[in-house]
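Why does residue order matter? Because the sequence determines the fold. Keep that principle in mind as you read this record.
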Amino acid sequence: MASPRIALVTRRPQPGHDHDLSDLARAVGETGAEAHVVGWDDPDIDWSRFDLVVIRSTWDYSWRAAEYVAWAERCARLTRLANPADVVRWNTDKRYLGELAEAGVPVVPTYYRAPGEDAGLPDGDEEFVIKPTSGAGARYAARYRADERDAALAHLARMHEEGFTAMVQPYMRRIDVTGERALVFFGGQFLHAVQKGAVLAPGTAYDAAKTPHPDLRPWQPTEAELDVASRALAAAPGGPGLLYARVDLVDGDDGAPRVMELELVEPNLFLAVHPGSLPRVAELIFKAAV
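Structure:
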């Protein structure tokens, strides 16, 4: 039997932004597969020559979401894509949070403002967050006090000028104390988790560079966190059977976990924090290719 050819897909150029990628490629190669690191938008790639295409660090997709989804659909017609194209289409637009809420999954309360719609902001004295429905790495995200409405409206106007739909959420205050937890699943099973600090510091401009995963450390999830994560995956296209998934959780004011994001497209797997997970991930990628 010929060695399966596996593409690990990233962005171009590759400035070392994905600290797991070289180790993952090596580990996949050690399973007996041919591992190739390629850019999703490389016009010279023949996707049909791969037995499996695994989306990894395509972290520039949110600037070109329509082009990216079209690539995923084209690639999926030529070979096996993980995760599948219909999942990519669904998960690249964070309006999926509304669908999770309708399915009974506890999520961060969210409402949306598309270009041309009323740019209303929350009433009251609580802090709130504005970010695009298509975004990665806290791009175009910012946190506002109630007395910063003019700055928030300017933020909304800028996003609408660029064609982005905005999502508006209350700032989850407990994140400053308990942080955010990211639960990673691989092959339909819980793999590991990390805890990270708050990303949005007060007064940081929406167009400023941000550290998307500050103060990373291993985390042992609670039963409540595992339950919410499992409910979120069960409500998503493809469900628990997806090759990989990451569920990002924060605490509500009541201390109960809520879904901040469900990452099914190109999640950081935090293998550098959990190097012991690397052989398992490589093995499951190999099995998915044969």
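The radius of gyration is 19 Å.
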